[in-house]
Amino acid sequence: LNYDRDDLLEMLGNLLDNACKWAANQVVIHLALAEKPNLKKYYLITVEDDGAGLSPAEIQQITTAGTRLDEQTQGHGLGLAIVKQLVEAHQGRLTFHPSNLGGLKAAISLPLI
Asked: Rounded to an integer, what distance in angstroms lies between the CA atom of residue 90 and that of residue 40?
């Protein structure tokens, strides 16, 4: 990946921190080079866990700065908002989906540079 090291560490660190915090037993990270028809190649980074997951309404809220869905855990509710800002600053996309493991899957798409 030809991206700023600190930006990548911040993005991945926040996603992995959340996945590890909510996982029951398993966190999986995957990096692939992908391509959509008639579009440029891009990096696809996914982080998923086997935790309880989130509802579609909760997924809509999690990248809003200061939003914390569980006040019982440590944090300030800034991590995913920071990830979103960094991804968008690199013309990428951050999405969340239910994981095949049962929890949440975060996906970062970054253009190949």
From this structure: 15
- Which of 23, 6, 16 minimizes the C-alpha distance to 108? 16
Please tell me the chain's helix, strand, coil percentages from 3-state DSSP, rounded to the nearest 5: 30, 30, 40
Nearest CA-CA partner of 28 in 42, 46, 15: 46
30 versus 79: the higher-pLDDT residue is 30
**pLDDT computed for residue 14 by the predictor:** 94
Coil, strand or helix at 49: strand
Q: How confident is the model at residue 2 (pLDDT cuts 50, 70, 90)?
A: confident
Q: Nearest to residue 17, comparing CAs of 85, 93, 104?
A: 104
Q: What is the CA radius of gyration of the chain?
A: 14
AA letter at 105: K
Q: Which residue has the higher pLDDT, 79 or 65?
A: 79
Q: How far apart are CA 46 and CA 16, in angstroms?
A: 10
